[in-house]
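Incident review: delayed structure delivery

Summary: a single-chain prediction request sat in the queue longer than the usual turnaround. Root cause was a stuck worker, restarted by the on-call engineer. No data loss occurred. The affected request and its eventual output are reproduced below so the record is complete for anyone auditing the incident later.

Affected input:
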Amino acid sequence: MEGLDIVKSHYVKELIAKGTREDGRGMFDFRNITIIPNVISHAEGSAQVDLGATRVLAGVKLQVEEPMEDTPDQGNLMVSSELLQLAHPEFESGPPSPESVELARVVDRGIRAAECIDLTKLFIEEGKAWSVFIDLYVLNYDGNLFDASTIAAMAALSSAKVPKYEDGKAVYEERTKPLELKNYVVSTTFAKADGVLMLDPNIHEEAASGARLTITNDGKVIRAMQKGLGGSFSPKEIESLVDVSLSKYSEIRKRIAPD
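Output delivered after worker restart:
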């Protein structure tokens, strides 16, 4: 950590110890969320999400492929993420970094565990099924990629249209049928700095934190959890954060796909 970052980290810790945050939010408030759907015309679905200054672009593509051998009557779901160099000075080009792999797995796990997509309905005919690819691109990093990416992935899925299937091929010029979603998930990421818990940490709050916990839920059930950094959470703290996570679901769900 460079000199200026150390000073900033100390300043942020001092604010947190006083029960305040540098942007004036409450400890369990999200930053401003902006969702722009259908930003990529050639994708089956897409969305750009700004969570504060963190920006993530999600694209959904559908391809006709062979089902997996162990699930011959189901389609496939794959999530990938890329931390673009332009998003932050520490991001580098090349093979996926551990952070990129973790991000994709956390988003994938929540969507898969909640069965947001009924994979059996992606089956077309013997030897043919739709594969759903969710590609995440981090355009600007200012903390909390997990929640921004989950929101972007769900918003892109909710806008996705399935291409027409004809003569064993996908007709991408004809996309009229919405991709059916049976569930929605929202993730909530908490940081812990000097014993203080907070939701949606920005980049400086992340740097000042010793522990991180991402909780993904569908409004009723906790579908996935991911612990990060070296610190810990007590059982009582986890119980309280689960309650906060569930309480935030409706607020974000309405933003992803208004009824």
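Verification: The helical segments are 3-17, 98-113, 145-159, 203-208, 235-256.
Action items: add queue-age alerting; document worker restart procedure.
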